[in-house]
Amino acid sequence: MQHLDLQVIERAMQWANAGETVWLCTVLATFGSSPREPGSMLVARGDGSHVGSLSGGCVEEDFLARLRDGAFTRPVETIRYGDDDAGGPQVTLPCGGILDVLIERLEPSDSNLLHLEVLHATLLGRRPLIRRVLLEEGRAHFVEGEAQGPRVERDTQSVRIRVGPSLRLIIAGISPVATVCADFARTLGFEVIVCDPRAEARADFDMPGVEVQNVMPALFIASGACHAATAVVALTHDPRIDDLAMIEAVRTPAFYIGVMGSRKTSEQRAERLARSGGLSDEEIDRIRMPIGLDLGSKTPAEIAMAVMADILRVQRGRPRNEL
């Protein structure tokens, strides 16, 4: 499944390279309920053609109608939807929320084409960056940034938008929990890769949009499959799969590494990884075991939900004590 942000930027590049002006819109903040999160993007051209989304449809309709009427002529501006007291568009979101949107008017200049190319390369690559948009000056540039943290940060002068490769989940081994976890992750927009060399395990696993690798997970991880937006989870209870996957995963830049098991099992695994795997205390500390949020989960679906919730928590930079 191609990441929606990538589709937006590829269409923006296509139009800009054809000599057309494009409007790149980014959700800056949401208040109350909202169907799209901060950082979500849409690109449009003057005739109303567009790719991506900002809401469930009502915001897009208003924005595109105003665009066709000749609005949004400044290089950069922000607009608020869903707040009658803000003096903006009189659009009520069905969910009752409020949406702040950044609108960038990008003419097909060399500098804007280069900016889109860097953004495109960042979405495809391994190194996360921050897009810093200067609100008064109407221009944007890239600065170094970490993969984790809020997707959008703002002050009175600028907006900082975190961009990077699509979220990837590598699942080491197939199990009932792994199957549900893969489905959850796919729904959340992750690129999901399941690794299992066992033919009997793969025989009953068939999930559209999920890549299956007939290989030991440790070998796949060691091949360079992990980047800074990758989570690695082992969910089989089979030490031959789980332990080897953890030994390789801690040598990668993956932002989340976890393995399923009780506290007693996790203590025994930590001892094995140090004794037989040669892992240091720092490497073992990178592994979340027991994996996931402590929700008292019992069923495969409950455990998978706890795992995915913890992955998202870490990816968003939220400490456990702030949940």
Automatic annotation (TrEMBL):
Q: Which domain of life is it from?
A: Bacteria
Q: Which InterPro entries match?
A: MoCofactor_Util/Proc (IPR052698), XdhC_CoxI (IPR003777), XdhC_Rossmann_dom (IPR027051)
What Pfam families does the database record attribute to this sequence?
Answer: XdhC_C, XdhC_CoxI
Q: Which residues form the XdhC Rossmann domain?
A: 169-311
Q: Where are the transmembrane segments?
A: none
**Occurrences of domain XdhC- CoxI (ranges):** 15-81
PANTHER family the UniProt entry points to: ALDEHYDE OXIDOREDUCTASE MOLYBDENUM COFACTOR ASSEMBLY PROTEIN, MOLYBDENUM COFACTOR INSERTION CHAPERONE PAOD
Protein name, entry field:
Xanthine dehydrogenase accessory factor
Give the organism the record lists: Modicisalibacter xianhensis
Which lineage is the organism of this entry classified under, starting from the top rank? Bacteria, Pseudomonadati, Pseudomonadota, Gammaproteobacteria, Oceanospirillales
